[in-house]
Amino acid sequence: MKTIVMLISGRGSNMQAIATALAAERWPARIAAVISHRPHAGGLDWAREQGLHTVVIDHTGFANREAFDAALAAEIDRYDPDLVVLAGFMRILTEGFVRHFEGRLMNIHPSLLPAFAGLHTHQRALDAGCKVAGATVHFVTPTLDHGPVVIQAAVPVLPGDDEARLAARVLACEHVVYPRAVRWFLADELRLEPEGRVRHQHGEPQWLWAAP
Ligand code: GRF
Fold first, then answer.
1. Residue 108: what pLDDT?
2. Does the structure show a pLDDT above 90 at 2?
3. If you measure from the C-alpha of residue 188 to the centroid of ligand 1, how many angstroms do you get, rounded to a whole number?
4. Is the pLDDT confidence value at 211 over 90?
5. Mutate to test the pocket of ligand 1, among 6, 7, 9, 14 (most ligand atoms within 8 A of CB)
6. What is the CATH classification number for the domain harbouring 172?
7. Which long-range contacts (CB under 8 A, 24 or more apart) does 61-70 make?
8. pLDDT-based confidence at 194, cuts 50/70/90?
9. How far, in Å, from the CA of 118 to the mean position of ligand 1?
């Protein structure tokens, strides 16, 4: 039985997608804790309704980023997780935190990395005139929104799109690829090659193309 810890900041729809797939597909895994730095993160309510163990570590109570990250790492370590899933966790993590969990720390970012790291990805893709947008699941390294890519989903940018429409189209794909990436990891199906590439060892497609 593998153990997952999830970190959320907001509504937690990616957390829900993963937790729902885990239950529906009967993965040999359990979610030991859902942790948020925001006491009122919407996803906490859903997690509690599912009977998941939730923890709040309010970042505003800490003097600096290092102190918060140390407390967060100590809490996560209590569950000895195989995988720490950042599911809409909107905080920059210190290098020490990332190194501590390196290789078992996954994130989803709503762009086709390495394009548009950081915030406002959808508006930036629209402003750049991109015809394709998407999302990336990757292992976390100390550089923000950077690290070995596990799977990417691509969606078209359609005439008349605004930020909300594009974000919704991308989010629907996030809910497909993030559970898939987590399932692969927990089943030991991912290989991290020396040059920093991630390969699915049975050759499953590490991309999703959502045609309109
Ligand atoms: C998602 O678009 C995710 O890619 C980004 O923040 C959003 C979080 O959504 N990092 P949710 O909290 O999972 O619903």
1. 98
2. yes
3. 25
4. no
5. 14
6. 3.40.50.170
7. 65/92, 65/94, 66/94, 66/96, 68/37, 69/93, 69/94, 69/96, 69/97, 70/96, 70/97
8. confident
9. 12
Name all residues whose Cβ lies below 6 A of ligand 1.
Answer: 8, 10-14, 87-88, 108-110, 135, 171, 174
- 159 and 115 in a single domain? The answer is yes
pLDDT in tens, 15-59: 999 999 999 999 999 999 999 999 999 999 999 999 999 999 999
Range of the domain at 141: 108-212
Same-domain status, 62 and 134: no
| Co-location of 87 and 126 in the same domain | no
Q: What is the mean pLDDT of the chain?
A: 97
> Rounded distance, CA 147 to CA 196, Å?
8
pLDDT tens digits, residue range 95-141?
999 999 999 999 999 999 999 999 999 999 999 999 999 999 999 99
121 and 168 belong to one structural domain: yes
Residue 212 pLDDT exceeds 80: no
Beta-ladder partners of 30: 3
Number of structural domains in the chain: 2
Residue 195 has pLDDT above 90, yes or no: no
Residue 7 vs residues 3, 16, 34, 89, 165: alpha-carbon distances, Å:
14, 12, 6, 6, 26
